[in-house]
Design brief:
Elements (H helix, E strand, L loop, with lengths): L15 E3 L2 H12 L16 E8 L12 E5 L14 E6 L9 H10 L6 H10 L2 E8 L8 E8 L5 E6 L3 H22 L13 E2 L4 E2 L2 E2 L30 E3 L14 H18 L1
Helix pairs in contact: 2-3
C-alpha cells in the first residue's frame, strides 16, 4: 500500500513469506481467510509478564555505568514448581530504579521537598548512586482465549485495527507473587532499604482488585508451529499447513514462551526457515 496516495500495488510470486510480527501476521491471515483450518490463527497470544522491586543500598553502587542490565539470576526458571506456577528469570538492573524512578524523578522529588542550593547536588548524588533494581519476567502458557483478531475500528487507511483479549491467569499470578517474595528477601539479605509506597507501586492494586503487572512487549504466539494441522498453523519449518507456498517467520510461530528474551530464538528460526525455502525452490 502506498499510504500517501492510498493506492495498492500487487506483486505475485511462487513463495510468500509473512513476517509482520505476532500482531499483524495473524490479523492479515484472518482478514484474508487463510491458513486457519485449526482455528488457532490469532490465538495463544503470549508475552513475558513483569514486575520489579527497587531499593536503596547502604553504600554507593554507581549505576548507569555500562549496560542497562549487567547480570541475572536464572535459578527460578525451572523446577517441579512449574506444575503449579510459571518459571521466571530475574534481572539485576544497572539503570537505577528503571521505569519506577529515573534521575529526573529524583531531582523532581527533591525540589518538591524544598532541597535547593548547595544541598541539592550532594543529595542527588547520595540518592542516585545507591539505587538498585530487581525485576523478574515470567513465562506464559499458550492459552487459546488470549487472542488477536481484526477490530471493527479502522485506522486512517481504512484497515481494521487489531483487537486483543489477554489475561495472565493464576499460573502467572503465582509466579509474580513468588518473584516478589524472592526480591524482598534478596534486598533484606543485602541490607538494602525498600522505599515506602507509592515507590515502588504495590503488586496488588486495592482499587482495581487486580495486579499492577506490566509486560516486556515480547509478543509471541498467534500463529503457532506444530506437527498436527489440527492444533497448529505452521509446521516446524514455518510452512503453513494449509497453504504450501506460504511461510511465516517471527515470534508468532512460538508455541511456548519460556523465560528468556525471544530475539535470538526468533532470528534462529527465521534463518532456518529461509534455508528451508532456499533448498525447496
Amino acid at each position: 500500500i502506498d499510504w500517501r496516495a492510498k493506492k495498492t500495488h500487487t506483486v505475485r510470486g511462487t513463495v510468500v513469506v509473512l513476517a509482520a510480527h505476532a500482531i499483524e501476521s495473524p490479523k492479515i491471515l484472518l482478514m484474508s481467510n487463510l491458513a486457519n483450518g485449526s482455528g488457532q490463527v490469532g490465538r495463544n497470544l503470549m508475552d513475558h509478564v513483569q514486575f520489579e522491586l527497587i531499593a536503596t543500598f547502604p553504600e554507593p553502587l554507581y549505576p548507569f555505568r555500562g549496560t542497562q542490565s549487567v547480570t541475572g539470576i536464572e535459578d527460578f526458571r525451572d523446577g517441579d514448581f512449574r506444575k503449579d506456577r510459571s518459571g521466571f528469570r530475574m534481572t539485576i538492573g544497572n539503570d537505577g530504579w528503571g521505569r519506577t524512578g529515573s534521575p529526573a524523578n529524583v531531582i523532581d522529588r527533591l525540589l518538591k521537598k524544598d532541597t535547593f542550593g548547595s544541598a541539592l547536588p550532594g543529595e542527588i548524588e547520595n540518592q542516585i548512586t545507591r539505587m538498585v533494581r530487581l525485576s523478574f519476567s515470567t513465562e506464559m502458557l499458550a492459552e487459546a482465549n488470549n487472542q488477536i483478531d481484526p477490530s471493527p475500528n479502522k485506522d486512517a487507511l481504512g484497515v481494521p485495527r487489531p483487537r486483543f483479549k489477554f489475561d495472565i491467569g493464576t499460573y502467572v499470578e503465582k509466579a509474580l507473587r513468588r518473584g516478589m517474595e524472592v526480591s524482598t528477601e534478596l534486598f533484606r539479605i543485602m541490607g538494602a532499604q525498600i522505599p515506602p509506597p507509592p515507590l515502588p507501586k504495590p503488586l496488588d492494586n486495592p482499587t482495581t482488585g487486580r495486579m499492577n503487572w506490566n509486560t516486556a512487549a515480547h509478543i509471541m504466539g498467534t500463529c503457532i508451529m506444530g506437527d498436527d494441522p489440527k492444533d497448529s498453523v505452521v509446521n516446524r519449518w514455518g510452512r503453513a499447513h494449509e497453504v504450501p507456498n506460504l511461510w511465516i517467520v517471527g515470534s508468532s510461530v512460538f508455541p511456548t514462551s519460556a523465560t528468556s528474551n525471544p530475539t535470538v530464538t526468533l532470528a534462529a528460526l527465521a534463518l532456518r526457515t529461509a534455508a528451508t525455502i532456499d533448498r525447496e525452490m
